[in-house]
Structure formats: C-alpha cells, structure tokens
Design a protein that fits this description.
Length: 273
C-alpha cells in the first residue's frame, strides 16, 4: 500500500515504546555508521526524508549525512543490523510501510519483508541498536512518524507580506498632500509678474539715461565742431590781416620804362606842341 509523505518535510521516527527516535550514531556522516535510538533533540542526525522510489517503495535519507538507511551486507536474516550508506538504489535501501493500530506503522525491508526492530527489545534505552526481524506484531516493531515541516522557517515572513498593503495605505496620505504643496507654490507663481513690473521702470530709466548720455555726447560733439570752426575762421582772418599788413608795408614797385618807350613818349610830346 502506497503511503503519502511530504517530500519537502523532514520526519522523526520514534519508537512506540519509550518515544526515543532513530538517529545516526555520533552524528556521523560516514558510510557504515550504525543507527540507534536516542532522546529526541531535533538535531539533523535525527531527521529523515521519506522519498518515493517506485510502487510502494521508499528510500529513507538522513538530513545530516545525506545517506540512506541500509541493512549491513544486504542482510536478510533476523538480527542483521542497520547502518547508513550512500544511496545506490539497492533493495537493502528500499522500504515500505504497513499501517498498524494507534496510528503507528511497521517499516519493512523491500529485500526480505522483515521489520525494523530494536535489538534486545530495549526501546526505552538510549543507544539501543536497530536490526531487522520477522514481523511478530510486537510493539518494539511499531513506529510513529512525525513531520517537521521545512516551510515553518518561512512562516514568520508571512505577516510582513500581509502588512505590505498597510505600508501603501500609510503612503496614501502623503500622495494626497502633494496637491497642497502645489497650491502653496501657486502664490509664488502669481507674484512673478509683479517682480517683472517692478523691474520695468528700471529698464526705462536706463534707456533715458542712455538717451541723455547720447544727447550730451552729441551736444559736446557739436560744441567741439563749432569751436573748431570758429578757430578755423579766426585763423583765416588772421591770415588775411597778415597779408594786408604785408601789402601796406611793402612799397609798390615802379616799373622801369625802356629806352624806346622814353623816346616814343618824348617824340609824342614834341608833336603835341
């Protein structure tokens, strides 16, 4: 009969008598390390994964070592001890489960159909070794499987996921207040034209000053030109005055008459007489 096991979970395998659990002796990770009973501590060497192989058969893997529950020398006789070994897909590493009264199960070897049993029926003693034995319906062949869910470590994170929307809700008022910030900024935008209006007279004054400066410059240039013209006129008058003075100072030159002219004038005078 195929059982249903959660392959994501780790299981403890506890004896019905005494409640002690199956573990790898001394938490060994070596091939051939024996298995025994011990007080439950939740340590990895006491945790087992039950994984389906085929049909009704399963492999039982230790969490601490990653090795499989196995029968020494592939034993099929009563009293063959159990140990751990790397999984090689052998029949001595395959098991099936039969339900018993009180929610317990018998765990049987696929190789011989013999049950996992406590040596010397000492299930109440820590360190008692395990073996296989023919099914006698004894309580020392009854086991209780308890799942230790792997997802439990992630469960504390679940509230944080549920609280995420609250964080968004808390952020909502901030989004609603954003328009207020824009409204507060609005008066500043409206006051901007006033700043421009205040700046306008400054521009006009500057232009007037520039025009005044230009006018003064033009006037100055005109005055300079007029002064230069007067100066030129004065120089011209001075030159004329100087020329006139030179003319009065210099005696007029007397033109000398030639001998022929004198003779002609004398002859003319005589004829007149």
């Amino acid at each position: 009969m195929k059982q249903t096991f959660d392959e994501a979970a780790w299981y403890t395998i506890a004896a019905k008598v005494g409640g002690k659990v199956i573990e790898v002796e001394n938490a060994s990770t070596d091939n051939g390390a024996l298995v025994c009973l011990a007080d439950a501590t939740g340590a990895d060497q006491q945790l087992w994964s039950i994984r389906h192989i085929d049909g009704k058969y399963y492999k039982i893997i230790n969490k601490n070592s990653g090795k499989a529950l196995d029968i020494i020398s592939m034993g099929v006789v009563n009293g063959a001890n159990l140990h751990q070994w790397e999984f090689v897909d052998g029949d001595s590493q395959m098991w099936f489960f039969e339900e018993k009264e009180g929610g317990t199960v018998a765990i049987k070897s696929a190789l011989s159909a013999k049950c996992i049993d406590v040596v010397g029926m000492n299930a109440e003693i820590a360190g008692a070794r395990l073996q296989i034995w023919v099914d006698v319906s004894g309580e020392n062949q009854s086991w209780i499987l308890t799942a230790v869910e792997a997802p439990k470590a992630e469960e504390p994170a679940a509230p944080a996921v549920e609280e995420a929307p609250k964080a968004e809700e808390a952020a909502a008022p901030a989004a609603e207040e954003a328009p207020k910030a824009e409204e507060a900024a609005a008066p500043a935008a409206e006051e901007a034209p006033k700043a421009e209006e205040a700046a306008a007279p400054a521009k006009k004054t500057t232009r007037k000053k520039a025009a005044s400066t230009t006018k003064k410059t033009t006037t100055t240039r005109k005055k300079t030109a007029s002064t230069a013209k007067k100066t030129t006129t004065r120089k011209t008058a001075a030159k004329k005055t100087a020329a006139a003075a030179d003319g009065e100072a210099k005696p007029k030159r007397t033109t000398r008459k030639t001998k022929a002219q004198r003779e002609a004038e004398a002859k003319a005078a005589e004829e007149t007489k």
